[in-house]
Amino acid sequence: MAVSFPIPSYFTAIFIISRLMSIMGISKHLNNKLLPPLDNITDKLSLDPSAIESASQDFGHIVKSIPKAVLQPSSIADIASLINFSYNSSIPFTIAAKGHGHSVRGQAMANDGVIVDMTSMKKHRNGTGIWVSNDGVYADVGGEQLWIDVLNATLKHGAAPVSWTDYLYLTVGGTLSNGGISGQSFRYGPQISNVYEMDVITGKAEIVTCSPNKNSELFYAALGGLGQFGIITRARIPLEPAPKRVKWIRMLYNDFTAFTRDQELLISINGRHDSHALGYLEGSLLMDHGSPDNWRSSFFPPKHHPKITSSIINHRIIYCLEVVKHYDYQTQNTVDKELEQLLKGLSYMPGFMFEKDVLYAEFLNRVQRGELKARSQGLWDVPHPWLNLFIPKSQIQRFNDGVFKGIVLEGNITTGPVLVYPMNRKKWDDRMSAVIPDEEIFYTVGFLHSSGFDDREAFDDQNKEILKFCEEAGIGVKQYLPHFTSKDEWVHHFGSKWETFQQRKFQFDPKMILSPGQRIFNNN
Ligand code: FAD
Q: Which residues form the signal peptide (predicted)?
C-alpha cells in the first residue's frame, strides 16, 4: 500500500513539491509566470516504492512502466490541480488515470509521469460514489467505481443498468474509455451507448459536464476515447427495473455455419423494450486443448462432462451458444414457453442443451467465481497476452476456417477462453471515439489467454500470426482494447475517424498529457 505523508506535513509537503518538480524537470518560475499551487495535493502525492511498483503493473503482466509519482486523490479538485500543474509547466509531464489496472498492455501506465490512482477517490467519497435518482431511472456514478458496486447499489432500488461487461471488477471510467461489451450489447449497445451525461477533467484541467446536448464534442470524444481527452469523474447511467432471475442456457454445435446462423437469428430480435428479445447472447469455443469449463465460467453439470469431452475429441472444435432470458414474478409462468418459442428450430446438436436458473446478480457476477478459483491456484496474477478483435459478419466464416480451425487448432499452445459472438452496429453511435467494422453485424472474438512467465512469447507469436492472416486475407478486422506500437498503426486503426480523433486531442489535451500508456500520441 502507498504511504501518505504524515507529520510534519508542512515540511513533507515542501519536500514533495520540490522533489516532484525536480524529478519532472520543472522550474518554478516559467515565462515569468508562477506555476499554480500544488500545496493542496502534496500529502496525496506518493513517491513510496510500493505505490510506484503497483502503478507500474497491470493485469497483463507484460508491460512495466515506472511513473515518478502516484496521486491518491480525494476530490475532483485534486485531479484538476495535478493536470493544471502539468499543463502550465514548461515541460508538461504525462498523467494516466488508473482504474482497476485491468488493461493488459500498459494502457493505464505513465512512464516517468504521474499515475492518478482512481480507487482512492472511492475511499474518500464517503459512500456518495453511487447515487440513484429518486425515480430510479438513472444513477450518478463516480468514474472510479467498480461495476459490481454499481450493481449492488442499484439493485437496492430494484433497478440496474442494462449493459454490462462479463467481469464486474472493472471501473466505470475504465470501461467507458474502451466500450464495455458483453452479451447484452446486441440489444442495448455497449456501455458507452448507455450514458446520459459525464463530468470530465480535460487535459487543460477544465472540469466539464458533457452530454449529447451539452459540450457534446467532449462527450462523444471521451466515450471509447482510450483516456485521451479527459479523466471521467462521473457518469450518469440509465437504469431499468432489474430482473429477478434468469434462465441461462448453453447449446453446443459442431457446425460453425449453423452456430453463427442461429446467433444472428437470435440477435435480430433486439428492441430495447421488446419483451420477446433475449437478455444476453454470447458464444465460445470448446477445444481439445481445454476442459469444457474454464476460469471464466463453470457451467456444465459434471455428469455431462464425459459426453461433452468425447464430442470435443470427435470434432476437435465445438461451438457453444450461450443465451439468457430474464424473468421476474410477472413473467415466471411464461418464461419457459417464451424461451421454447425462441429456441425452436435452432440447429444445436440434439441432447446438447444445458440449462440453469439463477438470480440475476449471480449471473452478472459469474466470472468472479472463476477469478477466485484461478487465484487459489496461483493462476490469476500471471501474464495475459489477450487479443480482442471485431470481425465483419461477411468474413466470420473465413476467420473460422483460417484462424479457429487453422492457426488456433493447429497451434501448439493451451488456449484460454475464446469468445465469439455478434453485435448490431446500429446500437453504437458513430460520433463516439470507439472503432468498429463497417458492417451492420460484426462479431467480437476474444482470445483470453493466460500464460506462464516463461512461455508468453508463444502466445504473442500466435496473436501476431492471427493479425497477419487477417491483414493478408483482407478480413477488415478492428482491435478492441487496441494495442499498437506505432503511429501508423493507430492511424490505420482509426481509419476515417483518425482526423476527428486527432483534432479532438488538440482541442482537449493539446499538450498530450493524458493516458500516454496507450502510445497514440506519446509514442517515443
Ligand atoms: P484501466 O485498465 O485502469 O484503464 C484503462 C484505460 O482507461 C487507461 O488508458 C486509463 O488511463 C483509462 N482510464 C481509467 N480510468 C479512467 C477514467 N476515469 N477516465 C478516463 N480514462 C480512464 N472489457 C469489456 O468490454 N467486456 C468484458 O467482458 C471484459 N471483461 C474483462 C475481464 C477481465 C478479467 C479483465 C481483466 C478485463 C476485462 N475487460 C472487459 C477489459 C476491460 O474493459 C479493460 O481492461 C478496461 O481497461 C477496464 O479496466 P480498468 O477499469 O481496470 O481500467
A: none
| Cell numbers 470481425: residue | 391
Ligand 1, closest atom to CA 170?
A: 51
Query: What CA–CA distance (Å, rounded) separates 24 from 114?
Result: 10
C-alpha 241 chain-centroid distance: 24
What atom of ligand 1 comes closest to residue 296's alpha carbon?
A: 34
Count of helices and strands (H, E) across the chain: 18, 21
The model's confidence at residue 22, banded by pLDDT at 50, 70 and 90, is low
Select which of 117, 144, 166, 197 is catalytic: 166
Identity of the amino acid at 423: M
**Residue at grid coordinates 519532472:** 24
From the candidates 58, 78, 149, 282, give the one annotated as an active-site residue. Answer: 282
d(CA 242, CA 432): 27
Number of Cα atoms under 13 Å in the Cβ half of residue 480: 23
Query: Using CA atoms, how far apart are residues 103 and 461, in angstroms rounded to an integer?
Result: 20
Tens of pLDDT, residue by residue over 447-471, are 999 999 999 999 999 999 999 999 9
* Residue of 212 and 13 predicted with greater confidence: 212
Taking the centre of ligand 1 as the mean of its atom positions, its distance from the CA of residue 454, in whole angstroms, is 26
- Cα(460) to centroid of ligand 1, in Å? 21
Which DSSP letter does residue 475 get? -
What was the pLDDT predicted at 127?
A: 75
Residue 335 φ then ψ, to 5°: -60, -40
| Closest C-alpha to 61, from 371, 378, 383 | 383
Cα–Cα dist 56/63, whole Å: 8
pLDDT in tens, 255-314: 999 999 999 999 999 999 999 999 999 999 999 755 677 666 678 989 999 999 999 999
Please give the average per-residue pLDDT across 242-260, as a whole number.
98
Measured CA to CA, the distance from residue 263 to residue 266 in angstroms comes to: 5
Confidence of residue 2 (pLDDT cuts 50, 70, 90): very low
- CA distances to 219, 300, 319, 379, 452 from 294, in Å: 38, 11, 15, 12, 17
Q: Which residues of 2-26 are buried (b: 16+ CB within 10 A; e: fewer)?
A: bebbeeeeeeebeebbeebbeebeb
Provide the grid cell at 324.
Answer: 439468457
pTM: 0.94
Contact 39, 13 (CB under 8 A): yes
* Helix-, strand-, coil-residue percentages of the chain, each rounded to 5: 35, 20, 45
Residue of 100, 102, 326, 483 marked catalytic: 102
Residue 4 has pLDDT above 50, yes or no: no
166 is catalytic: yes
The answer for residues whose C-beta is within 8 angstroms of residue 430's C-beta and 6 or more apart is none
What is the SS3 assignment for 439?
A: coil
Average pLDDT over residues 321-339: 96
